[in-house]
Design a protein that fits this description.
Radius of gyration: 20 Å
Structural class: alpha+beta
Low-confidence stretches: 157-163
Strand order of the largest sheet: 2-1-3-4
Number of strands: 4
Distance between the termini: 56 Å
Number of helices: 7
Order of helices and strands: HEEHHEHEHHH
Mean pLDDT: 82
Strand content: 5-15%
Helix content: 40-55%
Amino acid sequence: MSEADQRHLRRAIELAASARGAGDMLFGSLLVDPTGEVLREERNTVLTERDIDGHPEMKLARWAARELDRESAAETTMYTSCEPCPMCRGAIARANLGRVVFALSNDQLDELRPPGVIAPDAPQVDYQGPAFAGRGTRANRRILRMNMRLISCHRQKPWPLRPSPGNPSHDRVETGVTTLLQA
């Protein structure tokens, strides 16, 4: 790990301390370009903003997806006080961020939790599906094909392609989903 990596990680930890000082959970992150310039900093705001996705990694990934083209995003590094949770990992991947460096792993974080405190990602959820009994496989394949068409359009046009009425890709997907749900 380079001196720059260590410096940025220390800043992520300072942001985490700032979050704690504001009454939030102890998490902070920053996004850095290839030259070492800090593009944006965020801290956790889950409690103070009553926002379950107020994780700093999620906020940075959303910002990068809106403000950076995919090539520029792929050249960035996110520095964060703790290893990103599954929700944030998904957002980081979708934003096409190139690298994540974290100070504390999830296993280390779990070891620091007081006895009896349950990690937020631990509760079990009862997922049920597919909803199209008897036709589930065929219906899911149609939805998957429609999504793949939309994704291929995203790759051909500036990212993100915003679905809107009158957009041929959006209209095709909307018509397909409506037809599928009426069948």
